[in-house]
Amino acid sequence: LPAETGEPETGAPETGAPEEGAPDERDRKMAEQAARIDELSRAYAALLEDNKAFRQRIEREKARVVEAERASVAQALLEAADDLERALAAVSGASERGGEALAGLVDGVRLSLGALHKRIADIGAVRIAVAGQPFEPRVAEAVDTMPVSRAEQDGIVLQEVRPGYRIGDRILRPARVRVGRLAQ
After folding, report:
1. Contact at 8 Å (CB) between 179 and 135?
2. What is the DSSP letter of 149?
């Protein structure tokens, strides 16, 4: 018995011997696998770039939404400030005639208006300076013209009816102004 003697059986094929064409088959499979790895690596890199672009797009959208909300809050605060300014204008001079109670009320409204202006500034809203400047339709709305006799006052903002505000480059609301027109 060959198994007992430790001699190999004759006629049995060797299991470790390479078959004909096996190195070519291995090389082909390795090339296919290398190509697949390369393809997956490129796909992974593309996904990473897409993810990065997506995150940047989300950040820009988030910043846009925050900016729009800030503008909306600033608009509401500006309307409240306008109402308080009109109330103060209506009672200007009346505080001396109305006694101590009215004077206290006027002082309270002034303090509230100051706090409101501080909150408007904290949001980032800045008043647009237009008085004495050439009329700029991008930042001001002409509600009236006033006749002027000097040519250098033609097209100049003479009076601000309602202040305009901006946040950054965005105009929250244009100023309402009266513009000088040369009398002919």
Report:
1. yes
2. S
Please provide residue 83's backbone torsions phi and psi, each rounded to the nearest 5 degrees: -60, -45
Joined tokens for residue 137? 């339709």
Single out the residue of 160, 136, 138, 156 nearest to residue 148, CA to CA: 156
Sequential DSSP letters for 26-91: HHHHHHHHHHHHHHHHHHHHHHHHHHHHHHHHHHHHHHHHHHHHHHHHHHHHHHHHHHHHHHHHHT
CA dihedral 27, 28, 33, 34 (to 10 degrees): 70
- List pLDDT tens digits, range 150-178: 888 899 999 999 999 999 888 999 999 99
What strands lie across the sheet with 164-167, from one edge to the other? Answer: 125-128, 164-167, 170-173
Amino acid at 68: A
Query: What's the CA gap between 57 and 48, in Å, rounded?
Result: 14
Q: How distant is the alpha carbon of residue 146 from its chain centre?
A: 39
Q: Provide mean pLDDT across the span 86-109.
A: 78
Is a pLDDT exceeding 70 seen at residue 16? no
* Residues belonging to the chain: 184
Can you tell me the distance from the alpha carbon of 139 to that of 135, in angstroms, rounded to the nearest whole number?
9
